[in-house]
Structure prediction request, 196 residues.
Amino acid sequence: MFIKKFLKFTILPAALLAMAVTSAAAEEKMFTVINHTNSVIRVWGKSNDFKFGRIKPKTIADCTCNALYNKDCFDKKGDKAKIKLALESEDGTTLYSGDTCAKLYVSPGTYIDVTLDANGPNIKCAIVDKYEIRQPIPSFDEADSNKDGKIDEQEAEAIQLKTNFKDFDTDLNNELNPKEFDGAINKFNVFRGVPF
Prediction:
């Protein structure tokens, strides 16, 4: 009788407490990477080389980590993770990072916007709010799908520029030349809020 009571009041609560601690420790935390580049982005933790993974071109991916298995996830002061991002070369042998991507301290729920640096093969990383996620603005060559040197209304519709098409067609020929296209992109960010 005494043993049953002892087990009931000591071992059972201890087991329940251990299960609660384990499930709390196993909670997954994540940050999100928005890859605007045309190449794969590699993401890893700086402390113990824990690899969060590889992110395909032009995609948005959540990087999760479970503190129960990966101790360097969000183990820094203020529950932050120290991470690094780098762009893979096409053959996967070379990595290109940049000053803004080499040492990032991120909290769970952070959104990291990754774009190509204008001056070379490196990348730029910026922490953004979720509402700022947008598709990158294409170049004229990317928007000109039939490669005829101009953007017609059908191509404009494909990049969500048709609504204001007539405002940017200054020579009124129902097409946008490269100069008109640049003017449209500079005046109006048509891609804000557009998902990949």
Observations:
- Residues 16-26, 189-196 have pLDDT under 50 and may be disordered.
- The two ends are 66 Å apart (CA to CA).
- The chain is about 25% helix and 30% strand.
